[in-house]
């Protein structure tokens, strides 16, 4: 695949460099050879924490419909989008600059728009009292007919894909395949679907301007579906100086999957939660991220297969919801800012 947006160069002020495009291991969910799948996935998790997933079972028609509906929402006037502004449960629309992922290197927030959709929990459900649980916020069906139905269908199908991937991850960690299926982990997951649009703006790392600043994801894994516009970069070694960034090539019909902070903690750093960012290149770019999170009350602590006397746990146990809440607080604009602007 030709890459018109790669090459080797320097992000002068940030002391980083970019390399040509990186191609990833492909995990085929339709393959009967589970041993090969485990081997390929484990190699990817040890190397860079990113891999492709192909033949995942979600139809091409549904994927195209999700992207079409995604585009329709972001093409609405800002006044219409602001009617479904993100709430305290992190459901709904996030305007440009709402999120600031790399404050040390960014002059303002991420140059992207987003829309959060989570597990649907009625307001009268006791679980709705917790952060991140509650009813979703939906655009009017009069304005976007069928939009909610499409997103709910995709949300459920993507979760089944995630469960299949996580079973292979469990085997790669020498666990039982159903280890992560427990009620406190993925039995009642806190999965978040986020629709994203990067406007046609050119990023300028040397001046702190990014589509999305450098960050790691927070949960278990992320399933990313993108259009064919380049923009996603990964840094395999976040401690290297200078940092080296590599573009990830879009692969039609595939998910780009990466590991989150909780899997790094569970695996005692055996598997990587890899630093990544998005650079705009002047073209509009649409993507759909599906963040697969354990339940809010899940206690994340080092797995028995990943520790020993010579390799003790590197992290203390953590309640996932507490970790997630702090990360969102650190990276999103306080909602009071919007209330003041609209008053």
Automatic annotation (TrEMBL):
Keywords carried by this UniProt record: Iron, Metal-binding, Oxidoreductase
Gene3D superfamilies: B-lactam Antibiotic, Isopenicillin N Synthase, Chain
Domain of life where this protein originates: Eukaryota
UniProt cross-references to SUPFAM superfamilies, sorted A to Z: Clavaminate synthase-like
Gene Ontology terms, MF aspect: dioxygenase activity; metal ion binding
Segments forming domain Fe2OG dioxygenase: 188-294
Listed InterPro entries: DIOX_N, IPNS-like_FE2OG_OXY, IPNS-like_sf, Oxoglu/Fe-dep_dioxygenase_dom
Keyword tRNA processing found: no
Family: Belongs to the iron/ascorbate-dependent oxidoreductase family.
Protein name: Fe2OG dioxygenase domain-containing protein
Organism: Populus alba (White poplar)
């Amino acid at each position: 695949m030709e890459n018109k947006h790669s090459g080797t160069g320097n992000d002068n002020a940030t002391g980083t460099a970019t390399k040509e495009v990186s191609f990833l291991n492909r995990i085929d969910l339709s393959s009967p050879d589970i041993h090969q799948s485990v081997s390929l996935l484990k190699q990817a998790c040890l190397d860079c924490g990113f891999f492709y997933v192909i033949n995942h079972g979600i139809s091409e028609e549904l994927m195209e419909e999700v992207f079409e509906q995604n585009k329709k929402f972001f093409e609405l006037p800002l006044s219409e989008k602001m009617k479904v502004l993100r709430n305290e449960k992190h459901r709904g629309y996030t305007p440009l600059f709402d999120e600031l992922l790399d404050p040390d290197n960014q002059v303002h927030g991420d140059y992207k728009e987003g829309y959060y959709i989570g597990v649907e929990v009625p307001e009268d459900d006791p679980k709705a009292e917790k952060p991140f649980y509650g009813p979703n916020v939906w655009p009017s069906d009069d304005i976007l007919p069928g939009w909610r139905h499409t997103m709910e269908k995709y949300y459920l199908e993507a979760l089944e894909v995630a469960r299949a991937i996580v079973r292979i991850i469990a085997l790669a960690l020498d666990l039982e395949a159903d280890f992560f299926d427990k009620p406190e982990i993925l039995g009642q997951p806190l999965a978040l679907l986020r629709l994203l649009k990067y406007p046609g703006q050119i990023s300028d790392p040397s001046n702190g301007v990014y589509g999305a600043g450098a960050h790691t994801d927070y949960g278990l894994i992320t399933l990313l579906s993108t259009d064919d516009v380049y923009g996603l970069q990964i840094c395999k070694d976040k401690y290297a100086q200078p940092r080296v960034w590599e573009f990830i090539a879009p692969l039609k019909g595939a998910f780009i999957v990466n590991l989150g902070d909780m899997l790094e903690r569970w695996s005692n750093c055996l598997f990587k939660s890899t630093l990544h960012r998005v650079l705009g290149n002047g073209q509009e770019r649409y993507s759909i991220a599906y963040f697969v999170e354990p339940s809010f009350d899940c206690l994340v602590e080092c797995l028995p297969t990943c520790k020993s006397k010579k390799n003790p746990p590197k992290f203390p146990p953590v309640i996932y919801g507490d970790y997630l809440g702090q990360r969102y607080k650190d990276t999103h604009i306080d909602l009071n800012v919007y209330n003041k602007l609209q008053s």
